[in-house]
Design brief:
The longest helix is centred in the N-terminal third of the chain and has 25 residues. The chain is 67% helix and 2% strand. The termini are far apart. The protein is mainly alpha-helical.
Length: 221
Amino acid sequence: MDERRADRRRTGCAHRLEAWADGVVAGLDAQEDLERSLRRALRGNPTLREETAVRRADALRAAALGLGPEGCAVAAGVSRRMLRDWQERDPSFAAAMEAAADLAEHERIRARAAAAPAGLSPAALRVVLKAVRDGAVQASAAELGGWTEQSFLRLRRRSPEVAALLAAARRARTKKADRRGLHRFERGYRLVRVDEGDMNGGAGTAGRGSAHGPGASGPDA
């Protein structure tokens, strides 16, 4: 009797953990969706320049938190090639990315000097979960977040929550045909407003898409 009761408790705990993980993964894009809704309430459909500015800010935040170029691209929802193109076209953005990476390195040095606990940020785990959700294998996704394959396996074994989140990310994967080829930022069409400056400037060419057509037309180089 006691054993059956213990089994029911374990099953209940597992179901609660699974439901929690599904909720976390479902909310990975919540902030992005909220900001887009607020912009639409203020001005209608965003311009390509506004859309690109938000993506660039996401990349800068990821760099400041210690993620590498691939991880920054995932955090921004763009391909590595698109992120590189932004930096090549806009020296000020390239300088900002470099400064953000320098800041992250400075913080790592300070943490080592203070003997602070080592560890990657929640932003790194978010990148891993988004990559797994979009079809990446665990080893590749872990590298995007700054883990080695072995260190991430150890984390997964040590933390039931991380294991549950990875399982939830796999359950949330889009259809295989939709995952093939382009990053989510580059697939399909998004209704945005194209201003004259967007058409003539570098930022507008990197958008996800417009009323006139999609953004980039191929996978990452």
